[in-house]
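Please review the protein record below. Tell me whether the encoded fold seems credible here:
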Amino acid sequence: MRTVLVGLLLLAGCTPPSAPTPSATPTPAAGLEAAAIEAGLITDPASNDITGLYARDSDRVCIVPAATDYRIGVSIDHGDGPACDGSGTVARTGDALAVDFPAAPGCSFAARFDADRIVFPGQVPDACRALCRARASIAALSVDRLSDSASEASALRDTKGRLLCGGSG
């Protein structure tokens, strides 16, 4: 009996270990996201550059680099009177945009940026009415990125044909 037990132990020691069973491993999401960013399918959320031309229907926003922070221009044209036009400055902190329109003193507010969209708050200071005619308003403006080109953004004109983001920084 002892001989059989010793033989079995020796035999167990000579058997090669079994190979691990292969299992499917999912592709990491980060790898997919990086590939999509590289292919230009999605915008890199870590990008700090807000430069670009944004639009939805007849609403337009341009943002271009300036000496400090960025210049912003807004043009809303609802036809036959209701419209808003304004140029100002914008500074980004994370997904928050500090927007200021000096031509309408007191028209300063925080907007939201999510790499492909800019959204103004539902209520803006009363001073922002100076940018608009008739019953138009810049409140709750929501525009999507059309281009990240500074030259395209610089070419945006207001309803009177004036450049909103063009000129020197």
